[in-house]
Write a structure and sequence with these properties.
The protein is of the alpha+beta class. The protein is built from 5 helices and 4 strands; from the N terminus they run H-E-E-H-E-E-H-H-H. The protein is elongated and about 90 Å long.
């Protein structure tokens, strides 16, 4: 009789430990997924904000780049490039881009149960559909922190991509180059 209780108790304890382990791994997986969603959303929002900021610079404005030294033949290696895509302008834009994460909210993607991040404040004052967006200061601060980390760790890649006009920067930078959005290659290009 005693050994029967011991076996039953041991079996119940083992089942409980397995259940707790599964719940723990599920919550760890969910936390990792949420972290990936935040990093991916921040990267895609950063790209969106940089592209918009670049588009706001007068395309007629240029800046000189190259060496101001005079070569032995008397010439200089100076080139005129568009100001919008100059390294100096891009670095200046990157200093403030993460402040705009306060303009984003969180939305649950029904088809994938993944979190995406959408602009909830219009740039031009137009009304926006906020019905499915969650507005939360925790989300905003997490996006801002992730954005700052991405901008700091990937400064060279950001300069490289934005110094030239390129299609699908979100996918190329956030998914292929940095692996921040390895799940996001299936997302529509307008989603973050």
């Amino acid at each position: 009789m005693r050994s029967g209780r011991s076996v039953a108790w041991l079996l119940a304890r083992t089942c409980l430990l397995l259940l707790l382990g599964l719940l723990g791994s599920s919550s760890l997986t969910q936390a990792a997924r949420q972290g990936q969603d935040i990093r991916c959303g921040a990267c895609r929002a950063l790209v969106d904000e940089m592209e918009w900021a670049i588009s706001q610079v007068d395309p007629k404005k240029t800046t000189q780049t190259g060496s101001f030294r005079i070569n032995p033949d008397g010439s200089q290696s100076i080139r005129e490039i568009p100001l919008a895509r100059s390294e100096g302008n891009l670095l200046e834009l990157m200093e403030n881009v993460c402040e705009r994460m306060k303009d984003y909210g969180e939305r649950m993607e029904p088809s994938s149960s993944r979190k995406t991040y959408v602009r909830v404040v219009s740039r031009n004052g137009e009304a926006m559909d906020l019905s499915e967006a969650k507005l939360d200061s925790t989300v905003t601060s997490s996006l801002k922190y992730a954005c700052e980390t991405i901008a700091e760790q990937n400064e060279d890649e950001l300069i490289e991509f934005f110094s030239h006009e390129t299609d699908n920067v979100k996918d190329k930078l956030c998914s292929k180059r940095t692996d921040l959005c390895d799940h996001a290659l299936k997302l529509h290009h307008d989603e973050l």
